[in-house]
Amino acid sequence: MKLLVVGGSEELLETISLILKVRWRELTVLRAAEPSEGLELARREQPDIVMLRLDSPSVDCFDLISQIRSFSNVPLVVLSESGDGVDRIRALEMGADDWISRDCIPMEFIAKVNAILRRCYPHSNNHISCFFNGKLSINYAAHEVCILGKRVHLTPIEHKILYQLARNEGSVVSCTNLLTSVWGSDYEADPEFVKKYICRLRSKIEEDPSNPKIILTERGVGYLYSTSYYHPN
Predict the structure, then answer these.
(1) Contact criterion met (CB below 8 Å) for 94 and 87
(2) pLDDT at position 231
(3) Is 229 exposed, middle or buried (0-12, 13-18, 19+ CB in 10 A)?
(4) 136 DSSP β-pair partners
(5) Fewer CB atoms < 10 Å away: N or C end of the chain?
(6) Within 10 A of 69 (CB to CB), how many other CB atoms are there?
(7) What does the alpha-carbon distance between residue 38 and residue 59 come to, in Å, rounded to a whole number?
(8) Across 54-123, where does the E strand assignment appear?
């Protein structure tokens, strides 16, 4: 698991690392002292979860939540010294997934992080490895997609979309089902919203995004993950 912590001291980072490595031994921890650095790392490193230090003088936590949410649905957790209800509600309404206060004991901290990951990556305990003519492989459990052995960086939303299509390989997945599976049953959006993400996904995994061979469109219905296309040797 890859964790990004924005704000806070080296001591805080070490404490979080020691606690979480009890559960996730292969944990990688990234630290950003400044918001700009945090945004850059969130985009480039594609962390599995981001923690923001509310009380850090150099970080406007609420503005940072908004900025990260403009390009990513990565799980966001606010770490705070206080239990201020107003700040907590504001953070959650702006897109944070949870709020963890100072008095949280280590085992509760682990349980909270595990619960957040379970909600945001509901199929993370499953392993799916699909090969597209030996060139495209998907390992959902590791949140990893490779083309010709080279890793392709996808956002959490793009991973979820590709997983839903791949696990239904050869069958059409409707836009409605994609919206429900990826964003939740309460999410309402136009099919054009899904189309936008499909276009982004194609730009990363297709040789020619304008003439897709992996993710096909069934007009008026949805999308299909195809394994029937083969590149000539």
Answers:
(1) no
(2) 42
(3) exposed
(4) 132, 147
(5) C
(6) 14
(7) 10
(8) 76-80, 98-101
Per-residue pLDDT at 127: 37
What does the alpha-carbon distance between residue 183 and residue 194 come to, in Å, rounded to a whole number?
10
CA distance 153 to 143: 9
Question: What pTM, to 2 d.p., does this model score?
Answer: 0.55
pLDDT classification of 212: cutoffs 50, 70, 90: very high
CATH 1.10.10.10, the chain: domain bounds = 129-225
Highest mean pLDDT among 54-58, 75-79, 119-123, 135-139: 75-79
Across residues 172-199, what is the average pLDDT?
A: 81
What does the pLDDT read at residue 144?
Answer: 75
Which residues in the chain are classed under CATH 3.40.50.2300? Answer: 2-120
Q: Which residues of 182-204 are buried (b: 16+ CB within 10 A; e: fewer)?
A: bbeeeeeeeeeebeebbeebbee
- CA nearest to 59, candidates 86, 92, 14, 91: 91
Question: In what side-by-side order are the strands of the sheet with 28-32?
Answer: 28-32, 2-6, 49-53, 76-80, 98-101
Q: What is the spatial distance between Cα 70 and Cα 89, in angstroms, rounded to a whole number?
A: 19
CA–CA dist 166, 64 (Å, integer): 33
| Of the candidate ranges 39-48, 131-140, 218-227, the one whose mean pLDDT is the lowest | 131-140
Q: How far is CA 115 from CA 108, 118, 188, in A?
A: 10, 5, 24
What would be the CATH architecture of the domain defined by 2-120?
3-Layer(aba) Sandwich (3.40)
- Residue 8's pLDDT is what? 81
Fold topology of 129-225: Arc Repressor Mutant, subunit A (1.10.10)
